[in-house]
Amino acid sequence: MPSMLKRSHTDVRDIDLNLLVAFEALMEARSVTRAAERLRIGQPSASHALKRLRELLDDPILVRTPTGMAPTPRALALAEPVRAILSAIEATLFSAPTFDAAQATRIFRVGATDYAQAVIAPRLFRRVQELAPGCKLLLMITNCDTVARQLERGEIDVAIGVFPDAVATPHRAVLYREDYLCVFDAAACGVRQRLSYTQWLALPHAIMSTRGDYTGTLDELLAVRGDRREVVTSTPNFLALPWLLKGRRLVCALPTRLARDCAAPIGLKTCPLPFEAPAFDISMLWHSRSSEEAGARWLREQVVAAVAGK
């Protein structure tokens, strides 16, 4: 019978890999009885495994000597390679994959709203650069309408932003609660201090709307109060609003962290909203396929650390 080394790849598919486990036990025990104990099988089963190995390899494997069973030269030659094969299988199937950030080379694809790209992405990018210098960060625009499809298709590893329709998904983490600040050009609006409700309501407004209309969450609150504001311009991007305000008699409501980052550098003033408005969640979403993948898990940990200011 031809030896195992001369078999074709097609023949290998017909080999019971349990025979490799039995071979290792027989080589270590040098006894069918003790090998059966190691394998937790009966002695007849161990004897049958030895018989099959002998047929497979066309070699006695173990032979009787005055001092007990001894391996043949062929068996001794195969002992270390078989042990390496079994170790490799065990490591492949049962060892938890790790992610070595310092040595990794990878592109992380992050879907983020324009708010998240301005407020969170710079902090996340700094962490990735410091901890994983061989990795790159690819930022992609996402929103409530596209995020589920992007995650499902694997176009992004994680999504960051306001996703009120994703509350029920188990693959979601709330990063923090956010609220609004008023932002305006004090000189153009003729206001020195914080805006009163009457002043705020009297000013023209700019809003962010992904629907391309002139109403937002605050308008629903105003309707309950029996009031209405004048919205004169609308944009789907939060980041455009501060530049629309500069030098104009115009006011807008921006998320607090974004307002604090971008208002002062271009000479705009901020103040609290002159009425109570509900806060909202900034969340992180991911797909189930990447829940346990080491690199994706590391990325999510960095997002959490970035928003915590670490």
Overview of this protein structure:
With 310 residues, this protein is an alpha/beta fold. The protein has three domains: 4-94, Winged helix-like DNA-binding domain superfamily/Winged helix DNA-binding domain (Arc Repressor Mutant, subunit A); 107-178 and 281-307, 3-Layer(aba) Sandwich (D-Maltodextrin-Binding Protein, domain 2), CATH 3.40.190.10; 180-278, D-Maltodextrin-Binding Protein, domain 2. 42% of the residues lie in helices and 20% in strands. It has helices at residues 9-12, 18-29, 32-39, 43-57, 73-94, 114-119, 121-131, 147-152, 186-189, 197-202, 217-225, 241-245, 256-262, 294-307; strands at residues 62-65, 68-71, 107-112, 136-141, 158-161, 172-178, 180-184, 204-208, 230-235, 251-255, 269-272, 280-285. The strands form four sheets. Strands 4-3-5-12-6 form a five-stranded mixed β-sheet. Strands 10-7-11 form a three-stranded antiparallel β-sheet. Strands 1-2 form a two-stranded antiparallel sheet. Helix 2 (18-29) packs across helix 3 and helix 2 (18-29) crosses helix 5. The chain is rod-shaped, with a radius of gyration of 33 Å. It starts with 8 loop residues before the first helix and ends with a helix.
